[in-house]
Amino acid sequence: MTQQDLETRLIDLETRLAHYDRTLSDMSDMIKSQWDRIDVLERRNYAMGEDIKRMGNYFQTAPEDEAPPPHY
Asked: Within 13 Å, how many C-alpha atoms sit on residue 58's CB side?
């Protein structure tokens, strides 16, 4: 194998490595962004669940012995 062949192979490997490094960095950024979004959605989901519980408690605690409205 000639010196030029070795240099060509080395350049090719370095190019591939740089490409893989960039791809890995892009994927890492994407995963971070997705986890951030998941965190936001989980907080919203929890808040909505709490709102639903409060609404359910509000309707369940209505007095049952209350007289019916006058139009009955």
From this structure: 6
pLDDT digits (tens, 9 = 90+) for 10-42: 999 999 999 999 999 999 999 999 999 999 999
Query: Would the pTM of this model clear 0.85, i.e. be above it?
Result: no
Whole-angstrom Cα distance, residue 33 to residue 59? Answer: 39
**Chain mean position to CA 24:** 19
Angle (CA) 43 46 48, round 5°: 110
Hey, what are 42's tokens?
Answer: 């989980």
- Grouping H, G, I as helix, E, B as strand and the rest as coil, residue 29 is helix
DSSP-derived 3-state class of residue 41: helix
Query: Which SS3 state, helix, strand or coil, does residue 66 take?
Result: coil
